[in-house]
């Protein structure tokens, strides 16, 4: 385990099995349709890459990058688009793919923003959910794992842009987080 980690919350095998289940569930739910997966950069990139390889209906993907104005790990609710979608989502069956839902503020903004673009349907898929941190209600359709209120990194999730490449999801040592 990386020396900056306190404990591994979800190991590679647990993540792999759950991502397979989510892909199978999405495959069942979207029979006969084409999906557009919208990955929210950068955190969702690794999850999306693994998820789409477990989906067996025609799937394309696009990406959005957003930034909250809050500093560090704290979400403020104000969201700015850093990179918009490449193409129209009008009439498409869209699934927003996130790595984590925390306060829900990022997703609340994204859902409103994307609904206004006229998709045929819009669902949310997240690898992790921290329900105890929620400030606004967001309708999560596919959730990998509900986790306790601890700051986690790995498998796409970062602290100050580090640790995204860890193959597992771990709790960062508090002394690293505070320093
Ligand atoms: O529910 P919320 O409180 O809004 O928090 C969740 C958001 O925060 C993280 O993104 P971050 O801004 O850290 O960007 P990143 O994906 O590039 O790491 C995560 O990827 C979600 O988009
Ligand atoms: O626990 C977390 N880890 C990384 N990024 C995050 N964004 C919200 N919560 C988290």
TrEMBL record:
GO terms for biological process: GMP salvage; guanine salvage; hypoxanthine metabolic process; IMP salvage; purine ribonucleoside salvage. GO terms for cellular component: cytosol. One of its GO terms (molecular function) is guanine phosphoribosyltransferase activity. Its EC number is 2.4.2.8. It holds the Pfam family Pribosyltran. Pathway: Purine metabolism; GMP biosynthesis via salvage pathway; GMP from guanine: step 1/1; Purine metabolism; IMP biosynthesis via salvage pathway; IMP from hypoxanthine: step 1/1. Its main location: cytoplasm. It is found in: Cytoplasm. It catalyses: GMP + diphosphate = guanine + 5-phospho-alpha-D-ribose 1-diphosphate; IMP + diphosphate = hypoxanthine + 5-phospho-alpha-D-ribose 1-diphosphate. The keyword Cell wall biogenesis/degradation does not apply. Its cofactor is Mg(2+). Residues 8-159 form the Phosphoribosyltransferase domain. The keyword Nucleotide-binding applies. Keywords: Cytoplasm, Glycosyltransferase, Magnesium, Metal-binding, Nucleotide-binding, Purine salvage, Transferase. Belongs to the purine/pyrimidine phosphoribosyltransferase family. PANTHER family: HYPOXANTHINE PHOSPHORIBOSYLTRANSFERASE, HYPOXANTHINE-GUANINE PHOSPHORIBOSYLTRANSFERASE. Purine salvage pathway enzyme that catalyzes the transfer of the ribosyl-5-phosphate group from 5-phospho-alpha-D-ribose 1-diphosphate (PRPP) to the N9 position of the 6-oxopurines hypoxanthine and guanine to form the corresponding ribonucleotides IMP (inosine 5'-monophosphate) and GMP (guanosine 5'-monophosphate), with the release of PPi. This is Hypoxanthine phosphoribosyltransferase.
């Amino acid at each position: 385990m990386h020396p900056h980690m306190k404990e591994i919350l979800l190991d590679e095998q647990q993540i792999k099995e759950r991502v397979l289940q989510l892909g199978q569930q999405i495959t069942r739910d979207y029979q006969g349709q084409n999906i557009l997966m919208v990955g929210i950069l950068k955190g969702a990139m690794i999850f999306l890459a693994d998820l789409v390889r477990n989906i067996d209906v025609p799937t394309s993907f696009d990406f959005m990058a957003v930034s909250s104005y809050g500093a560090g790990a704290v979400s403020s609710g104000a969201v700015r688009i850093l990179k918009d979608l490449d193409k129209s989502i009008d009439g498409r069956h869209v699934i927003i793919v996130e790595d984590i839902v925390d306060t829900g503020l990022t997703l609340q903004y994204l859902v409103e923003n994307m609904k206004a673009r006229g998709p045929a349907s819009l669902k949310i898929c997240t690898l992790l959910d921290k329900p105890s941190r929620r400030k606004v209600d967001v309708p999560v359709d596919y959730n990998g794992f509900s986790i306790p209120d601890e700051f986690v990194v790995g498998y796409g999730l970062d602290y100050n842009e580090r640790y995204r490449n860890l193959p597992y999801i771990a709790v960062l040592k508090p002394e690293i987080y505070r320093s």
